[in-house]
């Protein structure tokens, strides 16, 4: 059964903090605020485009810190989403900060059928959180995660790679600590230097050096494999490459790639295939891999990079035979 999100972006609404890396309007590609009435219009429009009856739909409030909104405004947005009588809609999801969670907020979320709450963890290092002006500590994440699960709401946790003051091993430790909190799902975002942020000033002064694309992909790959081994679903790797984010001058520096997640999946397959080639001592031959058609591009790699790598290094010609599934 196919799953759909109806994304409603409320950029920076509800958030009283100004993290060094943050420019929500550029991240989401949304330049104006959304009212509950506008949210209803957007939901109705999205529903009209989803023709399949054999699907599950979540209405998702993203882009800001939803639970930092005034309680009455939260209620109006929740009412806007819960008012649709489409049996394909299985619930509401939202993203917010870990220090904007309490009993009253969660009771209201349950009342309106909130299915998932995603917390922006970003890092498990209190030093990194402080350097990036997050305004909370990791203990706030632990408290909020436990509360969310105690109300029967599914927990999602988001992490960032290469934050100011972080490094790959610190990021991997964040991944480990996220796994310990047993979330249902997670997202992995590389840190980008966006124009108009404090991080841009740090970058210009030489106080912040962003990850290279290679380092970001390698670190994300390690996290992805750890999450998969722990049974945590990774629902996104990399920022959504919206039109505003890709506009000239918005990304000052950092490991941006419009198909970042695909690069990470390419790297996972590359390691796996190379291990098999070495174990089987393959040289100068064809090597057939049976996989679903949805995995073909991941195996072959962006611009056939994996295929070319194995041919140049081992003389092995990778061929993918598709199977159903």
From TrEMBL:
<dbReference type="GO" id="GO:0003824">
    <property type="term" value="F:catalytic activity"/>
</dbReference>
<dbReference type="InterPro" id="IPR006638">
    <property type="entry name" value="Elp3/MiaA/NifB-like_rSAM"/>
</dbReference>
<dbReference type="InterPro" id="IPR058240">
    <property type="entry name" value="rSAM_sf"/>
</dbReference>
<keyword id="KW-0949">S-adenosyl-L-methionine</keyword>
<dbReference type="GO" id="GO:0005737">
    <property type="term" value="C:cytoplasm"/>
</dbReference>
<dbReference type="GO" id="GO:0046872">
    <property type="term" value="F:metal ion binding"/>
</dbReference>
<dbReference type="GO" id="GO:0051539">
    <property type="term" value="F:4 iron, 4 sulfur cluster binding"/>
</dbReference>
<dbReference type="Pfam" id="PF16199">
    <property type="entry name" value="Radical_SAM_C"/>
</dbReference>
<dbReference type="InterPro" id="IPR039661">
    <property type="entry name" value="ELP3"/>
</dbReference>
<keyword id="KW-0411">Iron-sulfur</keyword>
<dbReference type="GO" id="GO:0002926">
    <property type="term" value="P:tRNA wobble base 5-methoxycarbonylmethyl-2-thiouridinylation"/>
</dbReference>
<keyword id="KW-0408">Iron</keyword>
<keyword id="KW-0479">Metal-binding</keyword>
<dbReference type="InterPro" id="IPR007197">
    <property type="entry name" value="rSAM"/>
</dbReference>
<dbReference type="Pfam" id="PF04055">
    <property type="entry name" value="Radical_SAM"/>
</dbReference>
<keyword id="KW-0004">4Fe-4S</keyword>
<dbReference type="InterPro" id="IPR023404">
    <property type="entry name" value="rSAM_horseshoe"/>
</dbReference>
<dbReference type="InterPro" id="IPR032432">
    <property type="entry name" value="Radical_SAM_C"/>
</dbReference>
<feature type="domain" description="Radical SAM core">
    <location>
        <begin position="1"/>
        <end position="233"/>
    </location>
</feature>
<protein>
    <submittedName>
        <fullName>Radical SAM domain protein</fullName>
    </submittedName>
</protein>
